[in-house]
Amino acid sequence: QVQLVESGGGLVQAGGSLRLSCAASGRTFSSYGMGWFRQAPGKEREFVAAIAWGSGATIYSDSVKGRFTISRDNAKNTVYLQMNSLKPEDTAIYSCARTLGARAIASPNGYDTWGQGTQVTVAS
Questions:
Q1: What are phi and psi of 54, to 5 degrees?
Q2: How far apart are CA 52 and CA 28, in angstroms?
Q3: How confident is the model over 109-124, as a mean pLDDT?
Q4: Nearest Cα to 41, choosing from 88, 99, 82?
Q5: What is the pLDDT of residues 11-68, one digit of tens each?
Q6: Which ranges in 28-102 belong to alpha helices (H)?
Q7: How far apart are CA 60 and CA 95, in angstroms?
Q8: Burial 63-87 (b: 16+ CB within 10 A, else e)
Q9: Where residue 9 falls among pLDDT bands split at 50, 70, 90?
Q10: Other C-beta atoms lying within 10 Å of the C-beta of residue 90
């Protein structure tokens, strides 16, 4: 059974930081790109960041570029999202996902496995 489990969400003041983790089971991690998406109440799912397998190439949405950093530890089957300088508009449920291939992809159509998500709330 393929499984992705996020953790690390919570309540933080504006300007603060959080680090999200996404633990993947077994072969769900090797050879695949990984990504983070978020969804705020009443809004559509939004791409946040993605990282490729192998090269480790990364892509970010313009709204988080320079503030968030995606990374992966292949030995631990875990992908991280370091979030700094958080803003109230970053409040959302953050989910990790696995791509259909090895590349980093922004479109949700390029992902086939999703975690349940973790809530991030940024207070002003």
A1: 85, -80
A2: 14
A3: 96
A4: 88
A5: 999 999 999 999 998 666 788 999 999 999 999 999 999 999 999 999 999 999 999 9
A6: none
A7: 15
A8: ebeeebbbebeeeebbbbbebeebe
A9: very high
A10: 22
